[in-house]
Structures are given as C-alpha cells and as structure tokens.
Amino acid sequence: MDNPTRCSVIIIGAGISGITAAKVLAENGVEDVVILEAADRIGGRIRKEEFGGVTVELGAGWIAGVGGQLSNPVWELARQSNLRTCLSDYSNARYNIYDQNSGKIFPSGVAAESYKKAVESAIQKLQNHDDSPLAETQSYLHLLINIHYILNYLFSSGPKTPIELAIDFILHDFEMAEVEPISTYVDFGEREYLVADERGYEYLVYKMGESFLFTSSESEEGKILDSRLKLNKVVRELQHSRNGVSVKTEDGCLYEANYVILSVSIGVLQSHLISFSPPLPVRLSLFFLSPKSKYKNKKLVVNVCLPSRWKTEAISNCDIMVYTKVFLKFPYKFWPCGPEKEFFIYAHQRRGYYTFWQHLENAYPGSNILVVTLTNGESKRIEAQSDEETMKEAMEVLRSMFGCHIPNAMDILVPRWWNNRFQRGSYSNYPICVNHQLIDDIKAPVGRVFFTGEHTSEKFNGYVHGGYLSGIDTSKALLEEIIKEKEWKSENQSFLIEPLLALTGSLPLTQPDAVSNNLHKFNIPWTTLSS
Ligand SMILES: Cc1cc2nc3c(=O)[nH]c(=O)nc-3n(C[C@H](O)[C@H](O)[C@H](O)COP(=O)(O)OP(=O)(O)OC[C@H]3O[C@@H](n4cnc5c(N)ncnc54)[C@H](O)[C@@H]3O)c2cc1C
User: Fold this and answer.
1) Which of 292, 344, 399, 490 lies 20 to 30 Å (CA to CA) from residue 92?
2) Could you tell me which of 324, 339, 439, 304 has the C-alpha nearest to residue 385?
3) What positions does the domain Amine oxidase occupy (predicted)?
4) For residues 134 and 146, is the Cβ–Cβ distance under 8 A?
5) Taking CB atoms and a 6 Å cutoff, what residues make up the pocket around ligand 1?
C-alpha cells in the first residue's frame, strides 16, 4: 500500500452538504482538505439526466420555500446562476382526480369536498380530544405539521375507498412527508419552483465547487481538475482516535487527517457500508416494571446513556423515505394541458399505485413527457422489477384514465435510489413527534468525526437547502474546534515538549496525552423516564 495521503480535513461525500462544507473551510483558510466521493461525479442526490430530448432531474427537482420574508439560500444560488425554473402549484392536483372505474375526473366539487371534509373532520375530532397534539390546532400551518395525526383520526380504520387512499397518499407521502416541512414554508415562503434548465439543478453544486477548486477552462462549464477532489473513492473504513483519523477506500488507498466531515446519507449510515473503529457509540435501554403507585404496572424505559453510547440508536431511529420519479416519453400528448392541469391523480384501490402524475409541458413545452411519482414500498417494488414491467403497469393505468387509444410510451427512465448503495433512499424522514435529542444525537460529532448532510438539519431535513445549510453549520463547528485545539496546544506547550525531552532521556514518559480533552465529546450520562 502507498504512503497515506495526509491533510487537515477529509470530507466524505461531494453532495451539496460536502461541497458547501469544503467551500466554507477554504474560505476560512483551511484549504488542505481531501474530498472523497464514491460516485464518478459530484452532486449526490441532485442529479440530472438526458431523457427524451430534455434534461430531467432524477433527484431533487424543486426549490421549495420561495417568496417569503427570508430568502431561501438555494434560491439565491439559483438566481446567481440564472437557473431556469417554473412555478409549480400542487394544490390543483386535488381537482384532477381520475376515477379508476370510469376513467373520468371526479367532478371538481366531489374531489374538493372530500379533501376539505377530510381535513375539517380530522381537526374537529382532534380538537375535541384533550390529549391530542392538535387540541390547539387553529391554523393551516399547525395542521400541516400534524398531518399524520389527522389522517390517522380521519381514517381510523385506515382509508378505504380509492379517493380516500389517493388523498391519504398525496397528503402523507407526497406533500407532507417530512416532520416539519413547515419550517421551509414559514421561513422562506410557500412557493415551489421546478428546475427546468439543461445544466441541471446540479449546476449549483458545480458552481460552488468551482469557486474553490481548480477547473479546466476548456469548455464554458469547465471540469473540476483539482487533486483535492477524488472521485470513485468508496470509503469503507474509518478509524478515529484522539490523535486523528484514517480513512480507507475500497481500492485500498489510505488517507489520514486531523478531522473528518462525513456527509453520506442516513440510509448509507444505516447500511454499514462504512465501518467505524472504534464502532459508533450505542445506547443501552433497560426495561422494567415499576413497583411505585404512580407508574404501577407501566413499563418504564430507562435509557442509560453511558459516555458516548448514543449515536447508533439515533441513526437507526431516523426513517428514510424512498421517492421515485418515473419518466415516460410519448410520441404525442394525450393528456389535458391547460391551466391548472400540470398535476393529476389516479385513484386506485391500492394505496400509492401510480397515484401522482405530472406533465412536463410547463417545464419543457413539446417534450411529451409524463412523470409519475411512487414512494416507499411501491418504489422498492418497481426498483426490483424490469423497466418493461413498470412501463406495462404505467400504461395500463394511463389507459384506464385516458382510454385504450393512447399510444405506447417510447421510452422509460426509472431511477433506483433505494438500491444505490451510495444513497439507500431519497431523503430522511424524522418521526412526526420527533424528540429534538434525536436530531442532536445524529448531528453531534464523535471525537474527530463530524456529521453533516440534510439529515442533520433540524429545520430543513429532506431538502436541498437543508443539505446546504448543514454544510455551513458543520464546517463552522469544526472551525471552532480547530481554533480551540490550537489555543489548547499553545497554552500547553510544556506538555508537548516534556515528552520529547523524555525521549532524549531527560524525563520519564509519564506526562498526560498532549491532546485537548475538548476533542472527545463524551456525552454527560443522562437518563430519561418514560411510560
Ligand atoms: C428523488 C428525490 C427527490 C427529491 N426532491 C427534492 C426537491 O424537490 N427539493 C429539495 O429541496 N430536495 C429534494 N430532495 C432531497 C435533496 O436531494 C437532498 O436533501 C440533498 O441533495 C442531500 O444532499 P446531501 O449533501 O446531504 O447528501 P448527498 O447528496 O446524498 O451527498 C452525499 C454524497 O456522499 C457520497 N457517498 C455515499 N457513500 C459514500 C462512501 N462510502 N464513500 C464516499 N462517498 C460516499 C454519495 O455518492 C453522495 O455524493 C430529493 C431527493 C431525491 C432522491
């Protein structure tokens, strides 16, 4: 094995969070970094592909949260790069629900009424229920946060009819899949813009990289040539100690640094693609029955959080959402394209079965492309089957909506985020009543290993701007740590010099380890009592 490459900071992953973190470090004088990226490109879950003559976004498609008092930083980046976007209005989707049996759109009154009734009756029930988390619900915003509860109350034995299932799917899996989407809309505004630019959404990540990495000037967009960015480097082992970190890649290369920033997705962390030595901390949970009257016969869970025993549990408690956009190219349009027709819904007795459709005529007029979104179980199911089978299923659904005469699709594109071992899903999805300790634990550093990525953003997890802002937060936290270590070292010079003297025979080697205790963030032991 060659000598290890040595640097100050290794960044694992070149998605938006990793590239942003590297940029902030470079701007603050830490340029001695190495970025290890498993794929052959930067951008991660922001990814374009040419399909049917246009550029489609396989991953992030929308800049969500625009038009509010604060400006979404990703929207700012998009404006600086003149990224072409178009406004999307999902709210119309609920008026375009196709009945599986008749192939006709439910009269707008019926669909809108079902939707309104669903929401109103749920609020009513929840407000009457004292211990409901929605007892105080007064606004639409509160409603959005707690959509899980609404749906559970509304369909107390589960949604049954195709239209109920379709509404459940739109609200639950599509519009409100994350725990607090509200922060995005409250902070940055309620508008969402679809990126429709041939350079792709990923151009923003490339532009950021270009600001601190060397690029070739051959083409207008150039190519990142900087040796600090290493593509096709799959990190498999990470060893960390109070002296530093060493990272081994699948091709046998070794890298050493003072610190690591790990930006891989929560799905990758859960998959054990990367092994940690020593292993990431685990939490011990003790269960027993309380003899005391107040808690009599209740199971008590005492989470004994021994020093540094918390990380793995937090990682395993965060869900990952699988969200798949299937693209279909047709020789001509057969779907309505007028105003408020961009999105339409198929109501089927199987929940989430090719439910949510979008045409790309607003983004790319004349492209004749439809996109259908599947999630979770349905995503995994179609990932496991051939694209031909998926096309056949999609065509059956389209024929039941638009009739037998419609043409076959000429081409299909099925991204596989779940089976991609560098992603293992689309984005993090925290439990609805998330305990803030969970997110704190997920993002807290372990010794010299710092964690970043959309899943570490308390307010904006699941979004591109969550990834971007987490990259800034993590690199700032690391910069503080670097400064603290420098200060500690200069204050404790004697501890550093004396062991050297000992080596020359002047002193016994009994001095304390010459590294700041701050570097090891042992958690203070804590306990929780829950019934
Ligand atoms: C289908 C889909 C639709 C989405 N829609 C939207 C949307 O409309 N709007 C929105 O705001 N957000 C959306 N998102 C979410 C958004 O894309 C992500 O939140 C964001 O891009 C995450 O950035 P990140 O840097 O945290 O992670 P990533 O982009 O996943 O970056 C992590 C990087 O680490 C690399 N990596 C993984 N394992 C290793 C390893 N072992 N060694 C080295 N490198 C490794 C990966 O290849 C990747 O490049 C969507 C995501 C998906 C998948």
Assistant:
1) 399
2) 324
3) 16-282, 305-479
4) yes
5) 12-18, 36-39, 44-46, 59-62, 64, 234-235, 263-265, 268, 273-274, 323, 325, 417, 422-423, 426-427, 453-454, 462-464, 466-467
Residues 32-51 have pLDDT tens digits of 999 999 999 999 999 999 99
- Ligand 1: atom nearest CA of 58 is 1
Centre of ligand 1 to C-alpha 334, Å, is 34
Query: Are 74 and 204 contacting, i.e. CB atoms less than 8 angstroms apart?
Result: yes
Asked if residues 394 and 348 have their Cβ atoms less than 8 Å apart, the reply is no
**Residue of the nearest CA to atom 38 in ligand 1?**
422
| ipTM of the shown complex | 1.00
Counting ligand 1 atoms within 8 A of each CB, the residue from 464, 468, 472, 473 with the most, and so the one to mutate, is 464
What is the rounded distance in angstroms from the CA atom of residue 56 to the CA atom of residue 50?
6
Query: Nearest CA to 398 among 367, 375, 369, 365?
Result: 369
Cα(175) to centroid of ligand 1, in Å?
A: 19
For residue 456, CA distances in Å to 183, 270, 472, 529 come to 15, 14, 11, 26
Residue 270, pLDDT > 50, answer yes
pTM of the complete model beyond 0.90: no
Cα separation, 357 vs 345, in Å, equals 6
Distance in angstroms (rounded) separating the CA atoms of residues 471 and 44: 14
Alpha-carbon torsion (292, 295, 296, 300), positive or negative: negative
CA of 190 to the centre of ligand 1 (A): 23
Tokens of 173: 């899996």
DSSP codes, 193-247 = EEE--TT-TTHHHHHHHHTTS-B--SSSS--B--TTEE-S--EEEEEEETTEEEE
Residue nearest to atom 33 of ligand 1 (CA): 13
437: which 2 tokens?
A: 């300790």
